[in-house]
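Q: Can I see a sequence and its folded structure?
A: Here is a first one.
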Amino acid sequence: MLRNSLNSRQFVFYTAIGTVEWLALAAVEGRYVANYSGVPYVFALVITALALGAIDPKMPNLRAGIFLVAPALVLALWTAPRGDNDGLWMLWFPILLVLIFVVAGAHTLGARIGRRR
């Protein structure tokens, strides 16, 4: 029972962070900048994964990547920056899928750093 409550707390915590980062750094910013690239979102997500890996090294790395990026995948259909409406905004989806593995790698590095302390 304790393990299930811990997993659900981790799920809520990680997805809340992922949602806030997506909305603050990609969805809102991309609405006002026509050529928004999303670099601040990716940078913040990688730094967050490093920090969370150091704080919570027992969290499985791929699960951390999925939990942090899943809110963006769910919300991207409605909130992804559209640019000049040429259809290239659909590239957010494969980029976010690849970003799951990048974030998982950053979480792994953070966990290794956290274990050294």
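Q: Show me another, different protein.
A: A second, unrelated one:
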Amino acid sequence: MLETVMRPVAAIRTKGMALAHEAGIDEDGIGIKTLLRTRIVDSRSLAYLWMAIESNLNVLILGDGLSGGRPFMYSLFPLIPPYDRTIAFDCHAKNSRYHENLISYVPCGRHEVSGALKSARELLANRIVVADLEKFSREVFSCANWGIPFISTMAGEEPRIVDSLKKKRVPANSLSMLDVVVSMGKADDSVWRVNGISEYLWFSRSEYFIEEAVASKNFEFRTNCVLAGGKFNSKSLPVSKAMKAYSDLNVVGKKEAVEEFGRRSAFLAGSLDSNLPSKEYIDSYFEIK
């Protein structure tokens, strides 16, 4: 197992609550229980993201440096399947906290990480995690187009994210690998939380039909709103891209995928009554009882 390189992570304050941590420090940082207890995210949204990540969808988290987007990304690490060969680029993840297949790679400069991203498929990576998509958007989306899913963060707002990526010269054939966008926003009490989740479906990848494209006059992409204003949209699940990806991967019907979502949501809500750290608790879901 390769040695990881660690750096301190700055404190992030959300309405007086210090979320200072090293990514990888579980209950002392932003663990699953902390996320749920402080209502940064609800159990249904977290269950959705768990299934989306497990089904190899690409997840982009939007928010500026004060929104907690990057710490939230780190908190999703326990949801990455332990059998994935995951390379975390320019992150601060302690692999021993999660699994031996997670390697943290902190480069010396932009050109080094850019070259490493281009070589990700030679590194036999199953997944890449990039702290800031802003710097390496072309390379990250190129990896996604080669079948290596990503989790990353980026400053920006959800309605204009596609235009922002186009300005960064992400090619159209790679841009259509954008699957799930998570938006951080302030709630009524001025606390930064997961405020929105949208799925992107692309006409070029036959993810919606010509009739829908003609009706909407949109031949590029359409979105499926999973979470808006902090409220989960249960009606989005039967047509969800993540549920379809899960059903295809596990050779089950969409109905069974939605039922699995319900079980995982209830399981995550139950973490508040458990003494296990996040990773051990997540792993216990798959134990044969």
